[in-house]
Design goal:
heterodimer, A: two-stranded antiparallel sheet, 9 helices, B: mainly alpha, 0% strand
């Protein structure tokens, strides 16, 4: 897996992206709800081949990752990075490692996860988050009531646990799209607006 | 009003987890919206509703989720009365049609090992006759059911169920 702590990667699609000049009304409407971003451009243009799914998934993703109150955003990004690292999605891991670091100013956490995966040495609250994220990512059937205890012991409320669940689960989805509709390519050049 | 996740997790209106989900109304709305867009789209791009339910049943089976499997089995039964697709999903007779085999193989690959997917896997689907729309629909479906199964696992955990 590519080192995801060295800045954002680019992404090359395996399905020809939609040509905006020939896009239908429905496709154009679906595309408006996505965040505008150079790297997400190609991705959104591929997903726009199914505008109905895109039109629902984009606001769902936003609600999962940016919802107010509940789990702090940095912890949602941590869940996203954990899932992406374990699924082997370098592109997602790179984007979300950058967001985590921008929020926390703690790049060392990302370096440890990149190097050691689910075994990364972190402080107890983040360890609990990482372990839950790893188990939920790898084998959801193995999750049981006892898995809530370590999170509750670290002070997470049920709303925060639900938020974490949604973030990790969302990356089971996002990673699969990124990994199977295209591939990461060499890092973007300096001066990228991201 | 109960939605698909409430039904799957057996959450009664007014119960703590039902209410907890409603702290995120946009999430509830667009989760149900995603389910509708993926399983009963207005334009299916050539990937039929029966194929969609069968693909979802395969994922639920691979993830060993009995409740989710029963849910998709019931949906499929309504769309595939002869049980033709159901039999291929549950490891029985193979359809000799390359297209469905290609779809099922892709469902297995993306569910179990998305990291080993290659460009040729998409080329195979396109060569088997799927449109770009159908390829993206299938990809969104696989992603959604993998998401759904994990949300369900978290809800059961919070409910205190195995």
């Amino acid at each position: 897996m590519r080192d995801f702590t060295q800045g954002e990667l680019d992404w090359r699609p395996w399905v020809a992206p939609l040509d905006l000049n020939t896009a239908s009304e429905r496709q154009l409407i679906a595309l408006k709800v996505t965040p505008s971003n150079r790297a997400v451009g190609a991705y959104s243009l591929v997903l726009a081949h199914d505008p109905e799914a895109l039109g629902e998934r984009s606001p769902l993703y936003n609600a999962v990752m940016f919802g107010t109150k509940g789990l702090p955003r940095a912890d949602r990004e941590l869940g996203a990075v954990a899932a992406s690292r374990l699924n082997g999605c370098a592109y997602c891991a790179a984007v979300h490692a950058l967001r985590f670091t921008q929020l926390t100013k703690e790049p060392e956490v990302m370096v440890r996860i990149q190097r050691d995966g689910a075994g990364a040495a972190l402080e107890p609250r983040r360890r609990a988050i990482l372990e839950y994220a790893a188990k939920l990512t790898r084998d959801p059937a193995a999750i049981g009531p006892a898995d809530a205890a370590p999170l509750r012991a670290q002070g997470l409320t049920d709303l925060e646990i639900l938020d974490l669940t949604h973030a990790v689960a969302m990356f089971a989805w996002a990673n699969r799209l990124m990994q199977t509709l295209g591939e990461p390519t060499a890092p973007v050049r300096e001066g990228n607006p991201l | 009003m109960t939605d698909v996740m409430d039904t799957l997790a057996n959450l009664q209106p007014g119960s703590p987890l039902f209410e907890l989900r409603r702290e995120r109304p946009d999430l509830v709305k667009h989760l149900q919206g995603s389910d509708d867009a993926i399983f009963t789209p207005t334009d299916d791009g050539g990937l039929t509703s029966a194929e969609r339910s069968a693909a979802a049943l395969r994922i639920a089976t691979l993830l060993r989720d009995g409740m989710l499997s029963a849910h998709y089995r019931a949906r499929l039964a309504a769309l595939d009365p002869d049980g033709t697709l159901a039999r291929t999903v549950e490891g029985g007779a193979r359809i000799t049609e390359g297209r469905w085999d290609a779809i099922l193989a892709h469902v297995d690959l993306v569910t179990r090992g998305p990291g080993i997917a290659e460009r040729k896997d998409i080329d195979n689907l396109l060569a088997a006759g799927l449109s770009s729309h159908a390829v993206v629909s299938l990809s969104q479906l696989i992603g959604y059911v993998n998401f759904q199964a994990r949300v369900l696992a978290g809800l059961r955990m919070l409910k205190g169920e195995a």
